[in-house]
Amino acid sequence: MSTDTEYQYWAGRIRDSDEEAFSDLFRESYEPLMRYAYSFVKDADVAGDMLQEVYAHLWDIRNRLDERKSLKALLYRMTKNRCINYIRSRKSVRLDEVPLSDQPRVEMKTETDKQEAGSQLERQLGEWIEELPPRQREAFELSRFEGLDHHEIATVMECAPRTVNNHIVGALNTLRKRLHDWETERNN
Amino acid sequence: MNTKRPEKDILNRFSAAEREEVLRLWDIAGKIGPSRDDLPFQTDLDSEWGKVQQHIERRKREGKARVHTMPALRKARPRPKAAKSFTIAFALAALILGGFLMWYLFVPVTVEVPRGEFTVLDWDDGIKVELNSGSTISWNRSLGNGHRNVHLHGEAYFDIPSSEKPFVVETHSARVEVLGTRFNVRCWTDDPVGRTTLALVEGEVRLASLHEPRHDVMLYPGQRSQVDINNTEPLEPEPVDVQQVLAWRERGFYFSSIPMTEVAAELERRYDARIAIEGENLRNQTLTIYLPRPGDLENIIESICFVSGCRYDADDQEVRLY
Predict the structure, then answer these.
(1) A91: closest CA of chain B, how far (Å)
(2) DSSP of A80-95
(3) Which residues of A touch B39 (CB under 8 A)?
(4) Per-residue pLDDT tens for A133-158?
(5) B29–A144 CB contact, under 8 Å
(6) I need a labelling partner for B55 at 20 to 30 A (CA). Which of A80, B180, B238, B266 fits?
(7) In this complex, do B36 and A145 lie within 8 Å of one another by their Cβ atoms?
(8) Is there a contact between B21 and A179 if contact means CB atoms under 8 Å apart?
(9) What is the pLDDT of residues B294-304, one digit of tens each?
(10) Structure pTM?
């Protein structure tokens, strides 16, 4: 059973208050969602709190779940909305409140073996992805890293699947161009 | 997840040679993905699941408590009280319904087109409105003629089937009244004089300044006219190439003696990009160019530089013209 059909199967069971299915869903989805939440809030504890809220809320609204609608997309959207609300509510807090040394940083694994040309390209690509326009980057990452299909991404980003397509094509075009430039530069 | 290829409708947008590069990029990106699996901290699945379980248990207790107390309450309460609470509930429901009705009738409906996107509105009575990127249109559901009386910021193409009832477009500077026609209205809020430009494709249109509705001009197909917030009456209609005016509907561009700043604003809206123009001379320069099939932003910038003799550089944040 592919994970997507698994998710939809769980959706039906959870609607019927099946705690075991809920536990299975939790174990399958927690880490990817943790990464996703962390990418917004950049704080492990906060990301954990966000996810607690997401799963608690999902349980509370379980009788409204619909197997025909992607549960995975719903989870991502709930996570995204909570994280964004959190960030908005924090905006008024002064940034210098948190000492720099306490702020977590994401280290790219590829930075450790930067000698190799291959991993150097990976590192470059990581940077280029970060520099994409925000909507393009979001669509591309949800597709490539989170493995969501275009309809699911459309739900998360609250736009039309066609627009998701355009964002991803746009992202790929930018990345292709950067790859070209990078390789021409290396060959000179 | 890492073996997954891009979806077909993505790949179909690229030529065979490009497709190879796309697949390669997709592949390398997949190798970055796993490195993201390593969170810079540990998560304890069991303890996190424990917290979720506590929540479930709490809900169960609340649920049981509710079931338990309800029959007791019903017995203890004398009938009149129940009736009273029913009245209150009814009054509340009526209030909410009334509030909703007021809201439904009097709060205007607004459609905002995000940058980089287009929207088409289609009503049952055959009225069709196509909106350019970054435009906003609003109307009242009940007041006046409902959606036959709209307010526009931005650019839109209207297709209004013949009808006894007039259709009215209001902008910050103009009022357009029609019976049945097809026309284009352009009125960006960032225009310094709040200009509204109207071009007519079919039928007849009356254009008036918003503040002096009596001084109107009549337009015929293939003509255009303008009015801005300082005018009391619109300019004398002049001939225009309608196909060029409507280039945006096919995702193209048409600029006729348009200041560079305005060109940049249009491109920013369409491509959701940032464009900076350096130097007073270049900013004041006007541009005339018709790009029916423009391609991507860089293509257009290249054409613009070719025509106006300027240069550009671009990073992912913005395009700089100088």
Answers:
(1) 23
(2) HHHHHHHHHHHTTS-G
(3) 31, 34-35, 38, 44
(4) 888 998 998 888 888 888 889 888 88
(5) yes
(6) A80
(7) yes
(8) yes
(9) 778 888 888 88
(10) 0.43
